[in-house]
Design the sequence.
């Protein structure tokens, strides 16, 4: 009797019975997909600055030229509204679009290849039912013919794409495996943090490779070494330090800037404590790799105290006193975690100075934690300081406080000034 009544009401309302029964399960799937999309940071790449979420249009540099991300909203005409789950799976895990053309690996499908079937299903449900459709046509790439031909990517995939989802590894607990799955798969941390080879391929796709997460340059930023290395890596960070960084973008050692800001703003700060703890546990298990095998960093105030007493003697100290000291402190310790310390900061100790030059020239987009932008963001010095002055001040802070990192040449500053100018 009740059943008949429900059917009658459903019929009058024009609601198919099936959807009445399926609605709660569907909502849960869409919600899980929304969370996974956060873990994958899809929004960071698939939205243009000030553009609608997931409507695409963000320019991305590849070795061959500039491409634009695509509309992945469920708009049937310009987005992926007509895509089946199979179409979606092929794009996300195999790098092949609905019409069969290969995607450039700027889309991190080499990492997403590890995402499990049930998670792909949830992501698909979210993109079909949880994302607002936006009618916005895709923009063709700026890569000229014949370099824009995509068939060579098929061979790239044959050589470099490691098909097959993540399988739990024996000898590790549930948290470690969950962390490995997130870091290697949806988190695509290695797309920035693992150095790339001459064909733009990541030199390792998991911890079995010696280059795994040892740091790499992409788009003018050096993404830090995330292994247990004690100077340039995370060796001096506790589990709690790492968790704090992923949740809030700052801790006693460093502050997020450059391309890491997007990751904190859109992805890791919204992940649950259990997943953050799992990712930290996995990263903290990585043995030291990369770096220079120098003894562990120890703070030494001597050099700077002397230099700052007579700044005229050192060109770098002079710039530091005038432009940097009121924020980063006379002792290089600043006011962590509010303001980044420079003494002992792994990014300062790193041989590759790209990130330091870039942040000094161009500042960084704001870190936004729970809706609140950073209070004292790093200013842009490109209009104020010459290449020589920036080289001087960076050389000074890379040597000061026992940081022991090599000098920065004015020519390196000039190069980055030129290559980042277009984006500013
Ligand atoms: C690092 C940047 C980046 C991230 C993160 C990213 N994408 Fe992409 N994605 C791209 C680029 C670039 C393309 C277009 C590549 C091309 O044109 O060859 C693309 C293409 C796609 C396509 C194919 C669209 C089409 O019309 O062919 C789909 C589907 C897609 N991405 C889904 C996702 C999902 C889902 C996520 C999150 C789990 C995601 N992407 C995260 C950069 C990214
Ligand atoms: C789009 C590129 C990009 C991606 C993707 C990325 N990172 Fe980063 N990351 C960077 C850059 C650049 C830095 C250096 C600047 C800084 O310290 O914030 C960095 C710094 C870090 C640091 C601080 C290290 C230090 O010594 O200061 C941690 C920890 C980190 N990333 C973890 C992760 C994890 C975990 C993921 C994946 C969930 C990830 N990153 C994904 C670019 C990226
Ligand atoms: C208004 C305060 C302020 C001033 C002045 C300032 N900085 Fe910064 N700096 C920051 C903040 C804040 C960060 C962390 C990134 C962010 O949130 O913007 C930062 C980050 C950095 C970093 C990256 C450190 C890391 O976390 O790994 C370097 C290097 C740096 N600053 C160098 C300089 C130099 C050199 C000068 C002077 C020419 C300078 N800063 C002046 C506030 C400042």
Sequence:
């Amino acid at each position: 009797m009740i059943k008949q009544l429900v059917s009658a009401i459903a019929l009058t309302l024009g609601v198919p019975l099936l959807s009445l029964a399926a609605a709660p399960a569907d909502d849960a799937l869409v919600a899980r997909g929304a969370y996974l999309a956060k873990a994958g940071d899809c929004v960071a790449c698939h939205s243009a600055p000030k553009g609608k979420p997931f409507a695409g249009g963000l320019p991305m540099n590849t070795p061959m030229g500039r491409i634009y991300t695509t509309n992945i909203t469920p708009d049937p005409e310009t987005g992926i509204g007509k895509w089946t789950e199979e179409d979606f799976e092929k794009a996300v895990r195999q790098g092949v679009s609905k019409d069969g053309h290969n995607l450039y690996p700027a889309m991190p499908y080499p990492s997403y290849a590890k995402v499990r079937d049930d998670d792909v299903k949830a992501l698909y449900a979210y993109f079909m039912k949880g994302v607002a459709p936006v009618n916005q046509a895709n923009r063709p790439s700026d890569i000229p013919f014949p370099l824009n031909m995509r068939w060579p990517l098929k061979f790239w995939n044959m050589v470099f794409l490691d098909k097959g989802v993540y399988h739990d590894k024996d000898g590790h607990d549930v948290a470690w495996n969950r962390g490995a799955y997130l870091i290697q798969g949806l988190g695509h941390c290695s797309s920035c943090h693992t150095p790339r080879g001459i064909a733009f391929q990541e030199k390792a796709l998991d911890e079995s490779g010696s280059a795994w997460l040892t740091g790499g340059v992409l788009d003018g930023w050096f993404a830090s070494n995330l292994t247990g290395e004690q100077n340039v890596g995370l060796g001096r960070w506790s589990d709690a330090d790492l968790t704090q960084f992923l949740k809030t973008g700052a801790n006693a050692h460093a502050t997020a800037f450059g391309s890491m800001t997007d990751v904190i703003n859109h992805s890791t700060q919204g992940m649950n404590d259990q997943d953050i703890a799992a990712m930290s546990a996995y990263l903290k298990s990585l043995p030291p790799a990369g770096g220079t095998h120098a003894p562990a960093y120890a703070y030494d105030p001597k050099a700077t105290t002397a230099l700052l007493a007579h700044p005229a003697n050192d060109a770098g100290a002079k710039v530091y006193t005038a432009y940097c000291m009121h924020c980063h402190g006379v002792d290089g310790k600043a006011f962590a975690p509010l303001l980044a310390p420079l003494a002992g900061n792994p990014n300062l100790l790193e041989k590759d100075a790209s990130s330091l030059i870039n942040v000094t020239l161009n500042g960084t987009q704001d870190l936004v934690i729970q809706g609140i932008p950073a209070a004292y963001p790093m200013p842009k010095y490109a209009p104020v300081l010459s290449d020589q002055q920036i080289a001087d001040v960076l050389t000074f802070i890379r040597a000061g406080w026992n940081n022991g990192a090599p000098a920065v040449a004015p020519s390196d500053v000039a190069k980055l000034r030129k290559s980042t100018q277009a984006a500013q």
Summary: The mean pLDDT is 91. Residues 274 and 378 are 32 Å apart (CA to CA). The longest strand covers residues 59-62.
